[in-house]
Structures are given as structure tokens and as C-alpha cells.
Write a structure and sequence with these properties.
By secondary structure, the chain is an alpha/beta fold. The protein contains ten helices and 15 strands.
């Protein structure tokens, strides 16, 4: 059976299972459904071997959050959606059996990326926290700093050239921000995760200026999986940047919005490069599993 057929078989089986599961849940009993999900779902790495890297693009609506689980079980959370997703983020982590986050990255201070991080930090055991050196006078940012202080944690600076110690088998490098700026989006932490011959480039809301600086820096931007910058806004994912990354797959973290995300310009650009696109608004949570050589992709719907 081809990889494409295998992928869609998994998706269909999961969708059928989920519909049966939820049909027995009264409105508002999402917590019960999550509990059964935790108990009954087989390991997501099934079919890819035990030594797999899981990169889960959580459906948090018009926001962004990625949960990574390493081959040896180390955990990383990049962003946590908007303020109204705080409890949902905690439930997501519980459903995936995550009680400790070894590494937390807040890509930049915008609420749709860090809004749920305060609650996550309050509820879970936390290892290290990385954020770019840019301030915000919002209540969202203040709440996050208060949660960090209350845990006695310190924020380490996310910037280009930093290599993060996470898992011996997985390389984690920061490619941005390259230079300081007052623009939140262009101060986004950009993370490249490499496992064997597979790679992921997770770009936050980095826009064209940050992309240009990354290109000029000479960083190896090539990656098989690209998190499309700024939810598919035309301010990001320039043709030159996309040509350097050369992704096979792209994920757009987007929900219902009035911004026109993702834009036709970006969708057309990805299609021209024959990139297979996955979207949270259309397919729910997207999980990409790597065994270091290839990928297994499943979607919520």
C-alpha cells in the first residue's frame, strides 16, 4: 500500500473512531472525551517504530501551538494559542500524556501565540523557557511573566545561533531573530528541528524582513516540513524564502478570522512549488511523525 493510501486510511479510521466516541458524549463533556482518548488511543508512533519524533500542530483556532515529543520522550511546547485557549491547552497536554515540559518556547509576545502559556506553566512541571528579548505592555504578556516568576523560573534569550539541548538524537537550532527590532513578528523565534534525515522549520510569525535576514545569515534553511509564517499572511513566506526551504509539506495554523488568512497569494505560491498543505481550520490537529527517514501524517478530520 502506498504512503498516501496508508495516511488516509489512518485518518479515516481515526475520524470514524472519534465520531463514535463523541456521539456518546453529552454537550459540554469534552473533558470525558479527552479522558477516554488518553486511555484508549494506541501510541501515535505505531507503524513508524519506537524511536520516532512526534510534531503535533495543535488546533487552537486563529493562533499557533506545536507540541513536540522526542524519541526518548522529552517534551517541547512552542506557543500555546490565545487567551481563550488556556484550559484547552491543558487538556490537550493531558490527552497526550504530558505532565512535564522540558522545553517551552514563546516565539513572540502576541496573544495568539502566548495567550495560553501562563496556564500551562501554572499547571505543569517546566524545565527551561526561551523567549526573544522583546517586551510588551499587554496584560497577556504580564500574566505570562507572573506565572514564570511564581515558578521561580528564568527566561533564556531566544535568538539566532542558539542550539538547544533537548534530546541526544534530535538537533534543535534557533535561526531567528537575527537582529533586534521593535516589530513583534520579526522578533519571532524561528526553530529548526532535525532528526536523522528529516527536518522541520517552525517560523512563528516571522515576516519577510526576518526571512531576508535568515537568508543573508547563510543558515541552512532547508527543511521537509514548514510551518507557514504568520498563519499564511502574504507578509511572510516570500518566494525566495520558500525556494530556500524547499519543503515537501507545509502546515498552516489558522482558524476562522477576518484577516483573510491564509491568503490566496501564499496558497498559490505553495501550490506552484508542489508543497502538500495541511490546515488546522480544515483538518483539525495535524500530527507529523518522523522515524528519521520518512514521515507518517495524520489529521483529526
Amino acid at each position: 500500500m502506498s504512503r498516501q493510501k496508508t495516511r488516509w486510511t489512518v485518518v479515516c479510521v481515526f475520524a470514524l473512531w472519534l465520531s463514535v466516541l463523541l456521539s456518546g458524549c453529552a454537550p459540554g463533556s469534552w473533558e470525558e472525551a479527552v479522558g477516554r482518548l488518553t486511555e484508549n488511543t494506541p501510541p501515535a508512533s505505531e507503524g513508524m517504530g519506537d524511536r520516532s519524533l512526534r510534531v503535533i500542530f495543535l488546533d487552537v483556532g486563529q493562533g499557533a501551538s506545536q507540541l513536540l515529543i522526542s524519541p526518548s520522550g522529552h517534551t517541547m511546547l512552542i506557543d500555546a494559542g490565545n487567551n481563550d485557549k488556556e484550559e484547552e491547552m491543558v487538556r490537550y497536554l493531558q490527552a497526550y500524556g504530558v505532565h512535564r515540559l522540558d522545553l517551552v518556547i514563546g516565539t513572540h509576545p502576541d496573544a495568539d501565540h502566548i495567550g495560553g502559556l501562563d496556564r500551562v506553566i501554572d499547571r505543569l512541571d517546566i524545565g527551561e523557557i526561551y523567549m526573544p528579548k522583546i517586551q510588551s505592555n499587554t496584560k497577556t504578556f504580564e500574566s505570562l511573566l507572573n506565572s514564570i516568576r511564581s515558578k521561580g523560573l528564568k527566561v533564556k534569550t531566544a535568538k539566532a545561533g542558539v542550539e538547544l539541548a533537548w534530546d541526544e538524537e534530535v538537533q534543535v537550532n534557533l535561526f531567528a531573530p537575527v537582529k533586534a527590532t521593535d516589530d513583534n513578528n520579526n522578533m519571532s523565534a524561528v526553530v529548526k528541528v532535525t532528526y536523522g534525515n528529516t527536518s522541520f522549520l517552525l517560523t512563528g510569525d516571522a515576516e519577510s524582513e526576518s526571512e531576508r535576514l535568515m537568508l543573508d545569515s547563510g543558515a541552512n534553511l532547508r527543511a521537509d516540513v514548514l510551518l507557514v509564517g504568520h498563519h499564511g499572511s502574504k507578509s511572510s513566506t516570500t518566494a525566495k524564502f520558500l525556494s530556500a526551504v524547499k519543503p515537501k509539506y507545509a502546515v498552516i495554523q489558522v482558524g476562522d478570522n477576518s484577516y483573510g488568512h491564509p491568503t490566496k497569494t501564499i496558497l498559490d505560491r505553495l501550490a506552484k512549488q508542489q508543497v502538500q498543505v495541511y490546515r488546522n481550520d480544515l483538518q483539525g490537529t495535524v500530527e507529523i511523525i518522523s522515524n528519521g527517514e520518512g514521515y507518517h501524517i495524520t489529521t483529526e478530520r
